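re the bet — no i am not wrong, look at it urself. input seq straight from the record:
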Amino acid sequence: MILKGFKEKSNKKYIAKCAQSRVILPNADKLQRVGVLVNSHEFSDPEWIKSLTSLLKIKANDLKILALFNGKKNETSVYTDTFSEKELGWKGQFKSQSVKDFVANKFDLLINFYETDSLALQTISAATQAPLKVGLHNANPDINDLTIDITIKDKNIFKTELIKYLNILNKLSNE
């Protein structure tokens, strides 16, 4: 039990370190690659997420979805790339290859579409390289640049607000 507390503290330190060392430089680059982090127990509609590609004006293969899935052995997820909280090691290290691949991607936008206060999701979000990170109402303000104050059930409002802010930031291509 004591080890679990130390492990949690080391990951929180890692998140704080990532947040402090993050340098955001203004740029006029349009979105090309988008990453989405979800908790599969809160949100299980991958088709809705994939519908964002047309609104964000990106190719379908430039959208990567990673889901936290803490299911039982006989339970399956609707998402293809999943990980569990058990795969989080010390100091922000993950055992899962899907998490390592996700974090290695250079995204133009990272969407943190979850409400839970999951240390694993926050660690991945902090480790992922993206100049713009968007989250929901109760998200960690140290990790996200933009927080949209809605619940996860208001997914269509989220879509509308996201597009509105990306247009203001001039991140969407005119194609």
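see?? The chain has a mean pLDDT of 84. told u. also The chain is about 35% helix and 15% strand. so pay up
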